[in-house]
Amino acid sequence: MTELPAIPDSALVAEATELVRTAASPLIYHHSRRVYYFGALRGAASGLRYDPEILYVSAMFHDLGLTRRYRSGNQRFEIDGADEARRFLRAHGIADCLAELAWTGIALHTTPEIPLHMAPEIALVTRGVELDVLGIGYDAISDGQRDAVVAEHPRPDFKRQILAAFTDGIRDRPDTTFGTVKADVLAHFVPGFRRGDFVEVIQNSAWSE
């Protein structure tokens, strides 16, 4: 069996794991752990140096905003998770500069391309999410590595179930999907949803011309 990247052995990591295991569904828990592993594998392949605790907390908290316990209802789900990660890290005495890395990595994880040009802790959250959800970078890791991650954290019926989780987590705040990829989810699964239109926002603004 291929050896997986180590999960940091610390009280902070153990508490983060328990928080997500308690608050999130098994679907989100296993997905979040896979995001950490896939991100760490992509980081190792690229020779990146990063703080493994920050990457782990970022990966584990990135979808907390979809859970009933942590969703706000009035802002993007990404920001819900980012806010909780920053609060959690600060409460554990982590420096603000590192807590901000986690906040940014989570807040931008559904924003294509930009995170990949930022600090490794930010970029690797997106790498992990993109691989597990979209299959981007599928061949950037070996079959053995991929199989080892899925053996530890299975993903049965994942495509259907993650789309259902996205829909459930954001359908009550459709306006927060303006300009994001999650608008596609609501367009597919919520009857009557009409995505915001950037051109209409400009044309209908308070400016006369």
Short description:
Helices cover 58% and strands 0% of the residues.
What does this structure look like?
- The protein starts with 10 loop residues before the first helix and ends in a 6-residue tail after the last helix.
- The longest helix has 20 residues, at 26-45.
- The relative contact order is 0.14.
- It is built from ten helices and no strands.
- It has helices at 11-23, 26-45, 52-61, 77-91, 96-107, 120-134, 143-152, 158-170, 182-189, 198-203.
- The model has no long low-confidence stretch (mean pLDDT 97).
- The protein has 209 residues and is mostly helical.
- The protein is globular, with a radius of gyration of 17 Å.
- α3 packs across α6 (120-134), α4 packs antiparallel against α5 and α5 (96-107) runs parallel beside α6 (120-134).
Draw up the topology in text.
Elements: H1 11-23, H2 26-45, H3 52-61, H4 77-91, H5 96-107, H6 120-134, H7 143-152, H8 158-170, H9 182-189, H10 198-203
Helix pairs in contact: 1-3, 2-3, 2-6, 2-7, 3-5, 3-6, 4-5, 5-6, 8-9
N-to-C series of helices and strands: HHHHHHHHHH
The outline comes out as globular
Cα radius of gyration in angstroms: 17 Å
Low-confidence stretches: none
Main sheet? none
- Total DSSP helices: 10
